[in-house]
Design a protein that fits this description.
The protein is of the alpha/beta class and 264 residues long. Helices cover 36% and strands 21% of the residues. The protein has helices spanning 36-42, 68-78, 91-102, 131-139, 142-155, 166-179, 217-229, 245-248, 250-261; strands at residues 2-6, 9-16, 20-25, 46-51, 64-66, 84-89, 107-113, 187-189, 207-212, 234-238. The strands form two sheets. Strands 1-2-4-3-6-7-9-10 form an eight-stranded mixed β-sheet, sandwiched between helices. A two-stranded parallel sheet has the order 5-8. Helix 1 packs across helix 9 (250-261), helix 2 (68-78) crosses helix 3 and helix 4 packs antiparallel against helix 5 (142-155). The relative contact order is 0.17.
Length: 264
C-alpha cells in the first residue's frame, strides 16, 4: 500500500509485478481491488500500477475542480514511468481514453472494458433499466441504492438478481458502498474540451475493446461506436459476464490481456 499527494489530493495506489508497466483504472462501481485477479495472475509479466481514483477506495476527494487523467499522469510521473499500457473499466475506461488523448506518446496499448467515453450519452437508451436506482437515489437510501446498482451492473439486466458469483457481488457491494460516502457535490470533475467522443479518431495506440455479454445494451453500443472510430480497434465479447468481466471470468480476461499486451 502506498500514498502520494498529487494535484492537492492524497492518492492511494498499489504497485506490484515486473515487466512493462501497465496502468489499471477501476470502474465507477469499484476501486483498485477489482484488479486483484489480474495482479495475482500476471505479476511475472507486467509492472502493474493500480490507483484508487479520487473519492474511491483509499483516495480522498477534496472540494474543488479536478481531472482524473491529470492525477494519473502525475502518478506515473512521480513513479518515474514514462511509457505504459493502459487498461480501464467503465468510468475508468473513459479516463483511460482521456489519458491516451492527452498523452499519446506515452501510451503503448489501450484496453477498454465496458468503457464509457467523455461527452457521449449512450446511457439514455437504457433509462428504463435504472428505475430502481433512481428511486433509491431520490429517497436518499444509500443501502438500497448500492444494492440496485450492483443488481443492474454486476448481475446484469437480463440475469436474475444474485446471478453473479457471490464473492464478486460481495466485493462489488463493498467497493461501491464505500465510494457513496464521498462528498461528490463539493467536487467538480473536469472533462476534456473538445470532448473525447469527438476525438476518438486521434487514438493511434492499438486498442482492445472488451464487453461482457450480459452487460447493459448501451455499453455494447458504445463499444461498437468506439470500434468504428478508433482505427484497428478489436472488440471481444466475454460470455457469462456483466460489467466486470475481469472479476467474473478472470481466467479468460487474463488470457486476453496477456495475448494483447504481449508481456513485453
Amino acid at each position: 500500500m502506498s500514498e502520494l499527494t498529487l494535484n492537492g489530493a492524497r492518492v492511494h495506489f498499489e504497485r506490484s509485478g515486473s515487466g512493462f508497466p501497465v496502468l489499471l483504472i477501476h470502474a465507477g462501481i469499484a476501486d483498485s481491488r477489482m484488479w486483484e485477479p489480474q495482479v495475482k495472475a500476471l505479476a511475472d509479466h507486467f509492472d502493474m500500477v493500480r490507483p484508487d481514483l479520487r473519492g474511491f477506495g483509499g483516495t480522498e476527494l477534496p472540494p474543488g475542480p479536478y481531472a482524473m487523467h491529470s492525477d494519473l499522469i502525475a502518478l506515473m510521473d512521480a513513479l518515474g514511468i514514462e511509457r505504459f499500457h493502459v487498461v480501464g473499466c467503465s468510468m475508468g475506461g473513459s479516463v483511460a481514453i482521456d489519458v491516451t488523448l492527452e498523452n499519446p506518446e506515452r501510451v503503448g496499448r489501450l484496453v477498454l472494458v465496458g468503457a464509457g467515453v467523455g461527452g457521449a450519452s449512450f446511457g439514455e437508451a437504457d433509462e428504463a433499466l435504472f428505475a430502481d436506482v433512481e428511486k433509491a437515489d431520490q429517497a436518499g437510501d444509500l443501502e438500497a441504492l448500492n444494492r440496485a446498482e450492483i443488481r443492474l451492473w454486476v448481475d446484469g439486466p437480463r440475469r436474475a438478481e444474485g446471478a453473479a458469483p457471490p464473492a464478486v457481488r460481495e466485493l462489488a457491494l463493498d467497493m461501491n458502498g464505500r465510494s457513496m460516502s464521498s462528498n461528490w457535490a463539493a467536487a467538480k470533475r473536469q472533462q476534456l474540451d473538445p470532448p473525447a467522443v469527438d476525438r476518438l479518431g486521434e487514438i493511434k495506440a492499438p486498442t482492445l475493446l472488451v464487453v461482457g455479454d450480459e452487460d447493459l445494451p448501451h455499453v455494447h453500443t458504445a463499444a461498437d461506436f468506439m470500434a468504428s472510430k478508433i482505427a484497428g480497434a478489436r472488440k471481444v465479447v466475454i460470455g457469462d459476464a456483466a460489467h466486470l468481466p475481469s472479476l467474473e471470468q478472470a481466467d479468460e480476461f487474463n488470457a486476453l490481456l496477456l495475448e494483447f499486451l504481449g508481456g513485453s
